[in-house]
UniProtKB/TrEMBL annotation:
GO BP annotations, alphabetical order: proteolysis
GO molecular function list: metal ion binding; metallopeptidase activity
InterPro entries: JAB_dom_prok, MPN
Cellular component, GO annotation: proteasome complex
Name the record gives this protein: Proteasome lid subunit RPN8/RPN11, contains Jab1/MPN metalloenzyme (JAMM) motif
All copies of domain MPN, residue ranges: 14-135
The entry's keywords: Hydrolase, Metal-binding, Metalloprotease, Protease, Proteasome, Zinc
Organism annotation: Haloarchaeobius iranensis
Keyword hit for Transmembrane helix: no
UniProt cross-references to Gene3D superfamilies, sorted A to Z: Cytidine Deaminase, domain 2
Pfam family, one: Prok-JAB
Keyword hit for Phosphoprotein: no
């Protein structure tokens, strides 16, 4: 465990939420034949009612300005949030190969989990790797995730009130 992890008591990743990996596989299929790319974020397992330490991967952030084609995806690293919930990356290989390329290994420097999904993007068409490109176990967990739809539930009056608060 590095100094940063010890200082902030960062815990390991205990798994990925089933809804999260299902969302990622569906997104990769929708993006096919281009690569899909996102960043993994987590929620403390205790916040999900689990009796263990560590994080569960619950969110995938698609970074603004991400460009992709059938052989690569490029993310503007300045747009990637750097916080305690950032756990790694996820991307697809439209050719179906479930192992990191040399280019992938060069991007595995941030985070501890990197997921590669391969066509045809079925439930078992993905693998997790550590920052060195070594396979790692990543259990799929059936956890209840919060519904974030209320985030988009606002009116013009709510916007006006927020703008007045900022002045």
């Amino acid at each position: 465990m590095g100094l940063f992890d010890r200082l902030f008591q960062r815990q390991g990743v205990v798994g990925i939420a089933r809804d999260t990996i299902d969302f990622a596989l569906e997104s990769a299929d929708d993006t096919h034949p281009n690569e899909y790319m996102g960043m993994l974020r987590g929620t403390p397992a205790k916040h999900l009612g689990m009796d263990q330490r560590g994080y569960v991967i619950t969110d995938i952030l698609v970074i603004p300005g991400t460009r992709s084609n059938p052989v690569s995806a490029t993310v503007d690293s300045n747009m990637i949030p750097n916080d305690m919930r950032s756990l790694g990356s996820i991307h697809s290989h439209p050719n179906g190969v479930l192992r990191p390329s040399d280019e992938d290994l060069g991007t595995f420097t941030s985070g501890t989990v990197h997921v590669i999904m391969g066509a045809p993007y079925g439930r078992n068409d993905w693998r997790a790797f550590d920052q060195h490109g070594e396979y790692r176990d990543l259990p799929v967990l059936d956890v209840d995730l919060e519904d974030h739809e209320e985030f988009f539930d606002f009116t013009q009056a709510d916007i006006d009130a927020e703008l007045r608060r900022d002045k």
